[in-house]
Protein backbone atom coordinates (compact mmCIF):
# COMPACT_ATOMS: atom_id res chain seq x y z
CA UNK A 1 0.00 0.00 0.00
CA UNK A 2 1.35 3.46 -0.94
CA UNK A 3 1.21 6.33 1.41
CA UNK A 4 -0.75 9.37 0.19
CA UNK A 5 0.59 12.86 0.80
CA UNK A 6 -2.27 15.28 1.40
CA UNK A 7 -3.28 18.10 3.70
CA UNK A 8 -5.53 17.34 6.60
CA UNK A 9 -8.71 19.29 7.22
CA UNK A 10 -7.09 20.86 10.28
CA UNK A 11 -4.13 22.16 8.26
CA UNK A 12 -6.43 23.67 5.63
CA UNK A 13 -8.57 25.37 8.30
CA UNK A 14 -5.46 26.77 9.97
CA UNK A 15 -4.26 28.30 6.68
CA UNK A 16 -7.71 29.81 6.03
CA UNK A 17 -7.77 31.37 9.51
CA UNK A 18 -4.28 32.84 9.05
CA UNK A 19 -5.24 34.33 5.66
CA UNK A 20 -8.41 35.78 7.21
CA UNK A 21 -6.44 37.39 10.03
CA UNK A 22 -3.92 38.89 7.63
CA UNK A 23 -6.72 40.25 5.44
CA UNK A 24 -8.43 41.77 8.50
CA UNK A 25 -5.21 43.59 9.40
CA UNK A 26 -4.10 44.70 5.93
CA UNK A 27 -7.32 45.64 4.09
CA UNK A 28 -8.36 48.55 6.35
CA UNK A 29 -4.92 50.11 5.92
CA UNK A 30 -5.10 49.74 2.14
CA UNK A 31 -8.57 51.30 2.08
CA UNK A 32 -7.31 54.20 4.22
CA UNK A 33 -4.41 54.77 1.84
CA UNK A 34 -6.81 54.86 -1.12
CA UNK A 35 -8.95 57.48 0.63
CA UNK A 36 -5.94 59.66 1.40
CA UNK A 37 -4.73 59.30 -2.17
CA UNK A 38 -7.96 60.81 -3.47
CA UNK A 39 -7.56 63.72 -1.07
CA UNK A 40 -3.95 64.19 -2.18
CA UNK A 41 -4.99 64.16 -5.85
CA UNK A 42 -7.69 66.71 -5.10
CA UNK A 43 -5.20 68.98 -3.35
CA UNK A 44 -2.82 68.74 -6.29
CA UNK A 45 -5.61 69.51 -8.79
CA UNK A 46 -6.73 72.52 -6.74
CA UNK A 47 -3.13 73.81 -6.76
CA UNK A 48 -2.93 73.30 -10.54
CA UNK A 49 -6.19 75.19 -11.01
CA UNK A 50 -4.98 78.01 -8.72
CA UNK A 51 -1.80 78.32 -10.80
CA UNK A 52 -3.82 78.40 -14.02
CA UNK A 53 -6.14 81.05 -12.54
CA UNK A 54 -3.08 83.13 -11.62
CA UNK A 55 -1.74 82.91 -15.16
CA UNK A 56 -5.16 83.85 -16.57
CA UNK A 57 -5.29 86.83 -14.20
CA UNK A 58 -1.83 88.04 -15.28
CA UNK A 59 -2.67 87.79 -18.99
CA UNK A 60 -6.28 88.99 -18.94
CA UNK A 61 -5.91 91.51 -16.16
CA UNK A 62 -8.76 89.89 -14.25
CA UNK A 63 -10.01 86.57 -12.95
CA UNK A 64 -12.64 84.58 -14.85
CA UNK A 65 -16.11 85.61 -13.77
CA UNK A 66 -18.32 83.17 -11.89
CA UNK A 67 -20.38 82.80 -15.08
CA UNK A 68 -17.29 82.07 -17.22
CA UNK A 69 -16.10 79.65 -14.56
CA UNK A 70 -13.12 77.36 -14.91
CA UNK A 71 -13.98 76.82 -18.60
CA UNK A 72 -12.24 80.17 -19.20
CA UNK A 73 -9.00 78.31 -18.53
CA UNK A 74 -9.46 76.09 -21.59
CA UNK A 75 -11.61 78.22 -23.94
CA UNK A 76 -11.33 81.97 -24.45
CA UNK A 77 -14.34 83.75 -22.99
CA UNK A 78 -16.33 85.56 -25.67
CA UNK A 79 -15.86 89.02 -24.14
CA UNK A 80 -12.09 88.73 -23.82
CA UNK A 81 -9.74 90.09 -26.46
CA UNK A 82 -7.67 87.38 -28.22
CA UNK A 83 -4.44 89.17 -27.35
CA UNK A 84 -5.23 89.02 -23.62
CA UNK A 85 -5.85 85.27 -23.54
CA UNK A 86 -2.77 83.03 -23.76
CA UNK A 87 -4.56 79.75 -23.08
CA UNK A 88 -5.37 77.05 -22.76
CA UNK A 89 -3.98 77.26 -19.25
CA UNK A 90 -4.48 73.56 -18.43
CA UNK A 91 -2.36 70.83 -20.01
CA UNK A 92 -5.28 68.45 -20.48
CA UNK A 93 -7.23 71.17 -22.35
CA UNK A 94 -10.22 70.37 -20.19
CA UNK A 95 -11.26 71.19 -16.65
CA UNK A 96 -10.74 68.08 -14.52
CA UNK A 97 -13.36 66.61 -12.23
CA UNK A 98 -12.36 65.75 -8.69
CA UNK A 99 -11.50 62.09 -7.95
CA UNK A 100 -15.12 61.41 -6.91
CA UNK A 101 -16.47 62.62 -10.27
CA UNK A 102 -17.76 66.03 -9.09
CA UNK A 103 -17.11 69.38 -10.71
CA UNK A 104 -14.88 71.80 -8.84
CA UNK A 105 -16.78 74.77 -7.44
CA UNK A 106 -15.44 78.16 -8.49
CA UNK A 107 -16.89 81.58 -7.67
CA UNK A 108 -15.46 85.07 -7.70
CA UNK A 109 -15.84 87.16 -4.56
CA UNK A 110 -15.06 90.77 -3.59
CA UNK A 111 -16.33 92.05 -6.96
CA UNK A 112 -14.00 89.72 -8.87
CA UNK A 113 -10.86 90.55 -6.91
CA UNK A 114 -10.64 87.08 -5.34
CA UNK A 115 -12.24 83.66 -5.62
CA UNK A 116 -13.19 80.46 -3.87
CA UNK A 117 -12.25 77.15 -5.46
CA UNK A 118 -12.87 73.75 -3.93
CA UNK A 119 -14.02 70.19 -4.38
CA UNK A 120 -17.26 69.28 -2.62
CA UNK A 121 -15.45 66.13 -1.45
CA UNK A 122 -16.66 62.54 -1.38
CA UNK A 123 -20.27 63.40 -0.55
CA UNK A 124 -20.56 65.91 -3.42
CA UNK A 125 -22.29 68.42 -1.15
CA UNK A 126 -21.01 71.96 -0.83
CA UNK A 127 -20.46 73.35 2.65
CA UNK A 128 -19.73 70.11 4.51
CA UNK A 129 -16.64 69.16 6.49
CA UNK A 130 -15.17 67.11 3.65
CA UNK A 131 -14.79 70.03 1.20
CA UNK A 132 -11.22 70.26 -0.09
CA UNK A 133 -9.56 73.40 -1.40
CA UNK A 134 -9.78 77.12 -1.04
CA UNK A 135 -13.16 77.43 0.67
CA UNK A 136 -12.58 80.54 2.75
CA UNK A 137 -11.00 83.49 1.00
CA UNK A 138 -7.32 83.18 1.88
Report on this structure.
- This protein has one helix spanning 9-60, and strands at 105-109, 114-119, 132-134.
- Strand 1 and strand 2 form a beta hairpin.
- Strands 1-2-3 form a three-stranded antiparallel β-sheet, covered by helices on one side.
- The N and C termini lie far apart (84 Å).
- The mean pLDDT is 84.
- It is an alpha+beta fold and 138 residues long.
- Helices cover 38% and strands 10% of the residues.
- The protein has one domain: Glycoprotein, Type 4 Pilin.
Helix and strand topology:
Elements (H helix, E strand, L loop, with lengths): L8 H52 L44 E5 L4 E6 L12 E3 L4
CATH structural architecture: 2-Layer Sandwich
CATH class: Alpha Beta
Strand order of the largest sheet: 1-2-3
Low-confidence stretches: none
Radius of gyration: 25 Å
Beta-strand content bin? 5-15%
The overall average pLDDT, rounded, is: 84
What is the 3D shape? elongated
The share of residues in helices is 25-40%
CATH superfamily: Glycoprotein, Type 4 Pilin
What structural class do you assign from the helix and strand content? alpha+beta
The succession of helices and strands, N to C, reads HEEE
Number of E-state strands: 3
- Total number of helical segments? 1
How far the N terminus sits from the C terminus, by CA atoms, comes to 84 Å
CATH topology: Glycoprotein, Type 4 Pilin
Largest sheet: 3 strands, antiparallel
Amino acid sequence: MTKRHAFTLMEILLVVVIIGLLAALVLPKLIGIAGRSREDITGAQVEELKTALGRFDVNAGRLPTTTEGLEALVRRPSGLDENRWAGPYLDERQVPEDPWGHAYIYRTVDDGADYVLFSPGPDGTEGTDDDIGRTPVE
